[in-house]
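Chapter summary example: a protein plus adenosine-5'-diphosphate.
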Amino acid sequence: MIAGLKRNRLKEVKRIVIKIGTTSLTYENGHVNLKRIRKLTEIICDLMNMDKEVILVSSGAIGIGVDKLQLPGRPQTVSGKQAVAAVGQLMLMNIYERFFSELSQNVAQILLTKDVTEGAETRQNVINTFNELLKMRVIPIVNENDSVSVDEIKFGDNDFLSYIVATITGSDLLIILTDIDGFYDKNPRDYNDAILMHNITDLSEKIEEAAGGSDSELGTGGMLTKVHASRLAAEKGVAAVICNGEDPAIIYDILDGKDVGTMFIPED
Ligand code: ADP
């Protein structure tokens, strides 16, 4: 972690967690957005070439499973969701493996449940695994272990998971890619005059009041889980940026210190 990280110093970051949501991985019709995933993988490889260490937290297992199995929608039952996630996760990793291997970049899959990151010993094991992978220049691709997660051991949403991963790995920056430009003072899908907030220094819980749920069929947590995760990350000293993943090249803009997305600035 780098103390007092502001926009103009983001180029200094070394370890970055990038979280991508289902709505950014798929088209509105539910099919996989291969073009975008390819671009994201290329940029992540480029960041590795710049000697950054990247951890990717990827959603999409259920959404992609629904599409692969040609189901009419997300299953309603827990077991239905878990079964579909098991199918979708494999396809998702297959896509990542293919794109990354085209650039000779090794990747690894880490599936987590909350209990693993809470127990001191199991958490340390997970941290060691991340460190070992990054030492070998392997990109860890993380998701919740949806197929075995029940309420008691669930992170609940991947925004929260990405915050946990960013903090336990001592990352410098968390980037949450979503389907909107950042965090507005009210939901811009409901209000035309909503204003994008670029920099947030007030890390108190009341900032979450402006964040609503998802308006998309595929999105799960909406802005609320992103703001919650980013706020907690910044509180723990990890800078966090919520931004639009439509063009993953926005990651370069963030590192260049441009005023894109919403940055949650850790205290000095
Ligand atoms: P993802 O699949 O990337 O996790 P979500 O659809 O779950 O994305 O969350 C992003 C959505 O949150 C936005 O598209 C928007 O509809 C909704 N939203 C609610 N309140 C806000 C807000 N204050 N600012 C921005 N987006 C908001």
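Key point: Strands lie at 15-20, 53-58, 107-112, 139-144, 173-178, 199-200, 239-244, 262-264.
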